[in-house]
Amino acid sequence: MKNLHIRTELPGPKARALIARDALVVSPSYPRDYPFVMSHGRAAEVWDVDGNRFLDFAAGIAVCSTGHSHPAVVAAVKAAADRFLHISSDYWHEGQVLLGERIDALAPMREPVMSFFTQSGTESVEGALKLARFVTGRQRFIGFLGGFHGRTMGSLAFTASKYTQQKGFFANMPGVTHVPYPNAFRPLLAGPDQGRAVLAYIEDVLFVSNVPAAEVAAILIEPILGEGGYVVPPDGFLAGLRALCDRHGILLIFDEVQSGIGRTGKLFACEHSQVAPDIMTLAKGLGSGMPIGMVVAKRSIMQRWTRGAHGNTYGGNPLCCAAALATLDLVTAEYCANAARVGAYFLGQLSALAERFEVIGEVRGKGLMIGMELVTDRATRAPARSLCDALITRAYHNGLILLSCGASTVRFMPPLLISTAQVDEALELLERSLIEALGTTR
Ligand code: PLP
After folding, report:
1. Ligand 1 centre distance from Cα of residue 231 (Å)
2. Dihedral, CA atoms, 76, 77, 82, 83, nearest 10 degrees?
3. Which of the 8 DSSP states describes residue 418?
4. Mapping DSSP to helix (H, G, I), strand (E, B) and coil, where does residue 46 land?
5. Measuring CA to CA, which residue among 229, 245, 235 is closest to residue 196?
6. Taking residues 86-106, what's their average pLDDT?
7. What is the pLDDT, as a whole number, of residue 1?
8. What is the strand order of the sheet 409-412 is part of?
9. Which of 156, 302, 327, 370 could pair with 288 as two cysteines, CB 3.0-4.6 Å apart?
10. Following CA atoms 115, 116, 117, 120 in sequence, which dihedral angle do they give, to the nearest 10 degrees?
11. Cα-to-centroid distance, 62 and ligand 1 (Å)
12. Which of ligand 1's atoms lies nearest the C-alpha of 150?
């Protein structure tokens, strides 16, 4: 059946012209998968420059939490812009204080927190790492294979989801040791409980033979693995990690850049396991598209940072703070609960799809952070990489914006306001795309 929203061949003539101009003046390093050229968006729909309409199940990589150009967010940004565009972090302004207070009330730490304002996920991670080193006086860190934390030299030292992100940049920040992210679908260690196995590996192998616990400043982890494959860790794992950190005076940092701000049906993904970090990093969904991130730490930790120890020029920009406050209003009032409800429906429908298509090895996730892992066969679970790429491309041609993650996982991260009717539309487009992709890759 033809999608009436797609009116031209894809990419259309205006998109092709723009992409040709871009190729001459824009860095080729951006990992672009297919030629969508944005014109405008509303809620969960986006239009390209040729007038084709798409359902957006990528939300600018989990950024447009309240959808595209939510009127309340746009109004807040416009009102802030009318007052002043910038003052720098050398001075005070109310939006920044309000946002700090708001996060203090909402953070999962169960004790007062303080915040440092950034403009991106990677800058939040850099800040968290510097804070951990500064307050512990320790140099080493533990990160996770499959983790993604950004692309600047500190965060890149942890990023281990695809080698292309590392290639050509050695040596970055020293002192990071990686351990497996517990993944029941693709276990790297022996034993039925990958969570326990990873904890035992850290405590009984790493700490004993190579990385003394007393030298480790912090363990940095995504409470649900994002770029590395949308993997939910086994029950009890984060609690075990918390206990391990407490035993050794190690700080626990949760990177909630992708999983935070209602995406998983709770405000922060770590709330599913009721485990609190010492430090948390935020960005992406916090500003609905305006570039804002935060390093959030227990007050007992962040207040030990001395004047001048860390800073920036743009942190806490007034337009971004206004966007974040409006976003938090919308997410806490409505969209977080919507993510839980519609996400559960979506997961159920995808599981039904998995019963009909052998190539779907696993469907998993929380709220509207859902992954569908494709395999060449269910027994070996070998990743179906080219099928995944073909599916993402076919989905674009059918009017559905998707992204992949991990080796062969389709990730679904629509705006948190998505309706079940839009999920049904996406499922129809997805199934059609999967059938077409199977036709081209067999
Ligand atoms: N941390 C996580 C968990 C992420 O998913 C990302 C980006 O995808 C980052 C950090 C880096 O964020 P940014 O691209 O804003 O630097």
Report:
1. 16
2. 80
3. -
4. strand
5. 235
6. 97
7. 59
8. 360-366, 369-374, 409-412, 403-405
9. 327
10. -110
11. 10
12. 11
pLDDT in tens, 130-162: 999 999 999 999 999 999 999 999 999 999 999
Residues with CB under 6 A from ligand 1: 61, 120-122, 125, 148-150, 222, 226-227, 255, 257-258, 283
Q: Are 198 and 180 in contact (CB under 8 A)?
A: yes
Domain locations in the chain as residue ranges: 13-69+335-441, 71-331
Q: Which fold has domain 13-69+335-441?
A: Aspartate Aminotransferase, domain 1 (3.90.1150)
Instruction: Confirm whether pTM is higher than 0.85.
Output: yes
What is the position in ligand 1's atom list of the atom closest to the CA of 155? 10
Of ligand 1's atoms, which has the minimum distance to the CA of residue 283? Answer: 15
Listing DSSP states for 310-372 in one string gives S--SSTT-HHHHHHHHHHHHHIIIIIHHHHHHHHHHHHHHHHHHHHH-TTEEEEEEETTEEEE
Q: How far is the CA of 263 from the centre of ligand 1 (A)?
A: 14
Per-residue tokens: 190: 């022996």
Ligand 1, atom 5: nearest CA belongs to which residue?
258
**pLDDT digits 0-9 by tens, 336-394:** 999 999 999 999 999 999 999 999 999 999 999 999 999 999 999 999 999 999 999 99
Report the residue among 64, 159, 258, 263 best suited for mutation to probe ligand 1: largest number of ligand atoms under 8 A from its CB. 258
CA dihedral 231, 232, 235, 239 (to 10 degrees): 100
What are 397's two structure tokens? 């041609």
Separation of 157 CA from ligand 1 center, angstroms?
13
Distance of CA 255 from the midpoint of ligand 1 (Å) = 9
**CATH number at 71-331:** 3.40.640.10
Pick the atom of ligand 1 nearest to 123's CA. Answer: 16
How many residues are present in the chain?
A: 442
Over 90: is that where the pLDDT of 4 sits? no
